[in-house]
Design brief:
Shape: elongated
Order of helices and strands: HEEEEEEEEEEEE
Low-confidence stretches: none
CATH topology of the largest domain: SH3 type barrels
Number of strands: 12
Number of helices: 1
Mean pLDDT: 72
Distance between the termini: 86 Å
Strand content: 25-35%
Structural class: alpha+beta
Helix content: 10-25%
């Protein structure tokens, strides 16, 4: 016979879920108080499936632009846990909870130490710095990037 300490068979899992829910709410409150979103940043609407969606949020994935507005304390992009967003396809600026807005794109890294400008004429041709190989990256006539290998497998220059 199996006997439970508590008559409620889900008591132990309920306590675990309650603790994680409280922790998640603390993190959301902290995120809502601090905003690193700048004027002009592209964002998208994010809905958690277990959430009641605020009425002023567009559908999941809709993109928008963070906008600075004039407030009594100066120009701000966020205030009281809300960010000011002009959603694509609308003509008005609305407030969206910071917990329901995510950056649409972010800068991953800088290419400054990765590429150098090649040649004396500085025509915008970049050369990849690597210990084993060199590649040339330049904008082609069609506006796309052309990548050329500068050396063959034996280490000899392909172009002289």
């Amino acid at each position: 016979m199996i006997s439970f300490v508590n008559n409620n068979k889900t008591a132990s899992i309920d306590s675990v879920l309650e603790e994680s829910t409280q922790l998640r709410e603390l993190v959301q409150v902290k995120q809502a108080k601090t905003s690193s979103l700048v004027d002009g940043a592209r964002v998208y609407a994010y809905h958690n499936n277990g959430l009641v969606i605020p009425g002023n949020l567009p559908t999941q994935g809709t993109k928008g632009t963070v906008t600075a507005v004039n407030t009594m304390s100066g120009r701000k992009t966020a205030m009281d846990g809300y960010v000011f967003v002009k959603w694509d396809g609308t003509n008005k600026i609305t407030q969206a909870p910071l917990t329901n807005v995510r950056l649409a794109s972010k800068r991953v890294s800088s290419l400054e130490g990765f590429f150098v400008v090649a040649g004396t004429n500085l025509e915008g041709e970049l050369v990849h710095k690597s210990t084993k190989d060199l590649w040339s990256v330049k904008v082609g006539d069609d506006g796309k990037y052309d990548i050329e290998r500068m050396f063959d497998d034996n280490g000899e220059p392909l172009k002289v």
